[in-house]
């Protein structure tokens, strides 16, 4: 395994870091999250249009860069450092892989070029827990996470027996990432009733404001990750893929989950590294009893421990970018490192670390919210252990 980055990947990192340093400072982030979009559309045009971030992992035939998960994760590491609010994760990691894996030739040709250039943003709407649907914390093959029958969730009904593509959706999805502004919704819905129960994925062009679709942005702990409630009432939808795609939906969701986990791990590693760098600068400048507080042995020990955590998290994130099968375990490690780094940032900044004007609380919120939305850590690790049959045959 050659873990070294190529010159193109280093250039991508440098260019992206310079751009974000100019357009995504602390005040810029605070201003962007309170806009109706939840992010800065101008910055998104720079990221997706000029740098092509949304199409990094998409084939060149559809207007993408022809890269892979490594390039996308590298970009997410840089956006994670500054907590840049953008549709990148939902569009490039959640929705685009599903369209590429399950979509018909017509659907891929009609959607992927617009996803690649950022003119169309997208997300995944699931009625149940997102980490279960993505097979990050449990198996998703039984479809119980999608509801059905008396369990509620989202129901799909075929409009006409002769038209396999046209369906109608009923139900609600909660905590949909970037759901209030995404132009395309990939919706997981239950169909077939009890005798032929199955979960399928459907496309809803939200930018066309179809009848029966209601989207409401929710208050979120981490304002840099926009969440929405999405309701479907007689909402027209198009089946993603053919009528026989139901058997492939769980595995397609799991693959999208691995891409998402690798990108999230890189984001968390980048955010943790930024917390460490900012704290080191502070303890060098802040004086107490006539000397920098970084010269005290207790502070040195805490920062040394934090350095080890950040480096191991970064190694785990890079390995997951190279081998997405390890993404769930890497995500657990990186979320844990970010939680520790954010807490130490608050503590070692002293009184100013608790103030609303300081950036430290934004990283605490990101660490907490990501674990609530995609974790928790112990379930990510348990699922990784089950996937590797680590405890098979062991009495517990």
Produce a short descriptive summary.
With 396 residues, the chain is an alpha+beta fold. Helices cover 48% and strands 16% of the residues.
Helix segment tally: 12
Terminal-residue CA separation: 36 Å
Number of strands: 9
Rounded radius of gyration (Å): 21 Å
Give the low-confidence spans.
Answer: none
Mean of residue pLDDT values: 91
Number of domains: 3
EC number: 1.-.-.-
Protein name: Acyl-CoA dehydrogenase family protein
Family: Belongs to the acyl-CoA dehydrogenase family.
Keywords: FAD, Flavoprotein, Oxidoreductase
Task: Explain what the structure shows.
It holds the Pfam family Acyl-CoA_dh_1. InterPro entries: AcylCo_DH-like_C, AcylCo_DH/oxidase_C, AcylCoA_DH/ox_N, AcylCoA_DH/ox_N_sf, AcylCoA_DH/oxidase_NM_dom_sf. Residues 6-118 form the Acyl-CoA dehydrogenase/oxidase N-terminal domain. The protein is an alpha+beta fold. The chain folds into three domains: 7-89 and 100-116, Butyryl-Coa Dehydrogenase, subunit A, domain 1, CATH 1.10.540.10; 122-249, Butyryl-CoA Dehydrogenase, subunit A, domain 2 (Beta Barrel); 251-387, Butyryl-CoA Dehydrogenase, subunit A, domain 3, CATH 1.20.140.10. It is built from twelve helices and nine strands. Helix 1 (7-23) runs parallel beside helix 4, helix 5 runs antiparallel to helix 6 and helix 8 packs antiparallel against helix 11. The longest helix is centred in the C-terminal third of the chain and has 37 residues, at 249-285.
């Amino acid at each position: 395994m050659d873990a070294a980055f190529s010159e193109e990947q280093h250039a991508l990192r440098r260019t992206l870091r310079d751009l974000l340093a100019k357009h995504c400072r602390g005040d810029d982030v605070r201003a962007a999250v309170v806009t109706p979009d939840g992010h800065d559309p101008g910055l998104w045009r720079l990221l997706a249009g000029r740098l092509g971030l949304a199409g990094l992992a998409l084939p060149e035939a559809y207007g993408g860069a022809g890269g892979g998960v490594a390039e996308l994760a590298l970009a997410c590491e840089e956006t994670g450092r500054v907590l840049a609010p953008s549709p990148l994760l939902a569009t490039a990691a959640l929705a685009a892989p599903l369209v590429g894996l399950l979509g018909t030739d017509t659907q891929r040709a009609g959607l992927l070029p617009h996803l690649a250039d950022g003119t169309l943003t997208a997300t995944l709407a699931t009625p149940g827990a997102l980490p279960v649907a993505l097979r990050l914390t449990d198996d998703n093959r039984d479809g119980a996470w999608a509801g059905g029958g008396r369990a509620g969730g989202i129901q799909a009904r075929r409009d006409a027996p002769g038209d396999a593509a046209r369906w109608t959706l009923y139900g609600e999805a909660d905590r949909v990432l970037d759901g209030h502004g995404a132009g395309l919704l990939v919706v997981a819905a239950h169909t077939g009733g009890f005798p032929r129960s199955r979960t399928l994925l459907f496309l809803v062009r939200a930018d066309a404001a179809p009848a029966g679709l209601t989207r409401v942005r929710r208050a979120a702990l981490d304002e840099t990750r926009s969440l929405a409630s999405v309701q479907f009432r007689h909402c027209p939808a198009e089946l993603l893929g053919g009528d026989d795609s139901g058997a492939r939906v769980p595995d397609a969701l799991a693959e999208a989950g691995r891409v998402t986990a690798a990108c999230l791990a890189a984001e968390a590693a980048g955010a943790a590294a930024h917390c460490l760098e900012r704290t080191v600068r502070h303890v060098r400048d802040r004086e107490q009893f006539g000397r920098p507080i970084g010269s005290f042995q207790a502070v040195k020990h805490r920062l040394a421990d934090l350095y080890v955590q950040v480096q191991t998290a970064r190694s785990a994130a890079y390995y997951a970018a190279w081998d997405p099968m390890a993404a769930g375990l890497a995500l657990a490690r990186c979320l844990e490192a970010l939680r520790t780094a954010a807490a130490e940032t608050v503590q070692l900044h002293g009184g100013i670390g608790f103030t609303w004007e300081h950036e430290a609380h934004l990283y605490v919120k990101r660490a907490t919210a990501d674990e609530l939305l995609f974790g928790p850590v112990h379930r990510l690790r348990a699922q990784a252990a089950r996937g590797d049959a680590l405890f098979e045959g062991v009495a517990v």
